[in-house]
Amino acid sequence: MTPDRTPPAPRRHRVVVLALDGLLPFELGIPQRIFGRARDEHGRRLYEVVTCSVRPPGPVETDADFAILVENGPEALEEADTIVVPASYELGPVHEKGVLTEELAAALARVRPGTRLVGICTGGYVLAAAGLLDGRPATTHWASAEHFQGLFPKVRVDADVLFVDDGDVLTSAGVAAGIDLCVHIVRRDHGTAVANDVARRTVVPPHRDGGQAQFIERPVPDPQQSSTTGARAWALGRLQEPIQLRDMAEQESMSVRTFTRRFREEVGVSPGQWLTQQRVERARHLLESTALSVDQVARDAGFGTAQSMRQHLQAALGVTPTAYRRTFRTDASTACGQ
Hints:
The structure is a single chain. This protein has helices at residues 25-35, 93-96, 102-108, 123-129, 145-151, 176-190, 192-202, 229-236, 245-251, 256-267, 271-289, 294-301, 306-317, 321-328, and strands spanning 13-18, 47-52, 58-61, 67-70, 82-85, 116-120, 137-138, 156-157, 163-165, 169-172. The protein is α/β, with parallel strands linked by helices. The strands form 3 sheets. Strands 2-1-5-6-10-9 form a 6-stranded mixed beta sheet, sandwiched between helices. Helix 1 links the parallel strand 1 (13-18) and strand 2. Helix 11 (271-289) crosses helix 14. The two termini are 41 Å apart.
């Protein structure tokens, strides 16, 4: 009989979702949907997702015409590795005065030091009211950003981005940006392959950079005007080659100026920023899934040299190509030197 070479199952990372009265059911379901789909190469779940309330088990009101029954009280927060606070429309003094209720303060007092904290949309108000965002960058839904900044002047609010990753504290804008943030966390924890699989199963884009604009002026192009979709497809097919802005503009028969304006309106970032994002994603995939040398990965991803790729990965991910490969490559023994 062939021995079973499957390694022991790793301990699942415990994600606890804090359900507050007035919560939005869609956003409550995001962590379960994204983290619950993450699997290792043997098909085993990588996260355990638990929902809890600030009160003993029981019903929690939503902003819809139904309540949900939450089976865990605040004690679940004590065992969390990551805590997610989804949006709520009934935050009371948290939203009005920037202070926690006694009930909420008592629940958060159970959180262990070092626990990763995530606020989706107005869930960031809870983290800010607890003083956890003081002196740190954060975001929230663009419609609440001015109020959020006025209520919490110590927080460095960026209203223009989809999400902010500040290490152990992460915040996002609303709805779809919450999905982007959770997929980003999976990618940060387990690499591009796992995150892409989650995105594919959930039928969402595998990567939207956190710095992308929340509000894109024309997300759906005017049918009477040309789109930049063809140029993006053209560029993705030849990322390993030098690509000039005028080359992309020519694919749509536009002037460089018109193309640049239209591209930013549709995508939310400049063509140059978008190209760099795509090349970083290509490099990540190659570092994880192949034994190509760092020099070859740099060429195939379109960075030209290993030094250029190293600078871009350091800026985007905070790690070198070798360190990234060592963390996420399933067969680290084939990894090539930096």
